[in-house]
What does this fold into?
Amino acid sequence: MLRFVCFIFTILAMFPVFAQTARPELAERKFISRAVEQKISEIKSAANPEIGRLFEQCFPNTLDTTVTHCEKDGIPDTFVITGDINAMWLRDSTAQVWPYLELIPKDPKLKPLVAGLVRRQTNCIKIDPYANAFNDGPGTSHWSTDHTAMLPELHERKWEVDSLCWPIRLAYSYYKITKDETVFDDSWKTAMRLVIQTFKEQQRKGDRRGPHPYRFSRTTAWQHDTLAQGGLGNPWKPCGLIASAFRPSDDATLFLFLVPSNHFAVVSLRQMAELADGPAKDTDLAHSARELAVEVETALYKHAIVNHPKYGKIWAFEVDGFGNTLMMDDANLPSLLSLPYLGACKLDDPIYKATRRFVLSPDNPYFAEGRAASGISSPHADAHRIWHLALIAQGITSTDTAEAAQVLRTLAATHAGTYFMHEAFDKDDPNDFTRKWFAWANTFFAEFILHIHKKWPDLLK
It folds into this structure.
């Protein structure tokens, strides 16, 4: 009898459909998509039980727990919190819904959901293009005492170049999939002109003494949470690049010209130009976007390439225009590692390939190697903590089956029994992790699984 019971439990363990899930009960889920549920069934049937259960919990996590969707005066509106922080980041909200875009043709409910987010992000940019995170309307924030021009609609006002790139990425892909022109109205065009204005302001070509449209400082014990020089950041020399006061990790830059974010800006400006020429029907906006893209791209190739003694020509992480460079990579996106994923270069680009070898080596000061895993860490959560986002970025940009398989094994072995991804975990102990509810990491993991399913389906077994 005991052998029979053990046999039954063994069989049940082989099929994740019988495994207990940590998803909310059906009635408590924020948004339900038939196409998402069908994709879960498809992947579970193609994957081993561990990967199947991870996908089942991670893929719908944004829809299950973070989305508020409604109509306001007949127009869709969508607010997406990041997870354990009750606020919407422009970056995170785009990335959180990204894997659902390809399912829009299979589920009409997803179209207004994404359209509502495009409109909400547009309105957020119009409220303050320098803000990175927003409340759902006027409210309060833990950071309301920051020394910057805070508004009640803002959760945080850290200027990050990439914050204005992600909404363009979302709108561009939404249009490519749906051909819906309704979101590209006067409001969207106003927001895009603000994006270009802000990018140009942050090229900082004027007198360093000011006046400056953006300053930020915070009363804090954390060096990376505030800016030097009265909230302006460390000295810079104008060179055509766009200054980013903070990195995607929300840590202050050391040198203001953050290279991966400038690459992302080039991609986004060209996407903006294409949208302006097409559904927005604004040739002046298109011309301005293309002109700025050329200027920033030219500056990148002039000021951001370093001839490394070991790796040859590679991208620096940050530069200041004086010739000083910071050689590292951070765990959040955009990163140097993620450049092909964001459309900034091809996977076989020689400078990228050399840069990739550098950032995935101990020569990157934020590459951590431990008993549990090896991967990119960040000053945001201590150098000994590896980020799931960076591991996934490594896997999704890999051209090598063995490397992709190793990343997949690492992800499956470091969820600490939660069957969710996290922000960062100790390189020697995955049970020591930060952020148990981080929806972007969950949907990015699911995106990686969908990528593997298309490119190397046998790895899922």
Residues 32-65+368-461 form one domain. The longest helix spans residues 283-303.
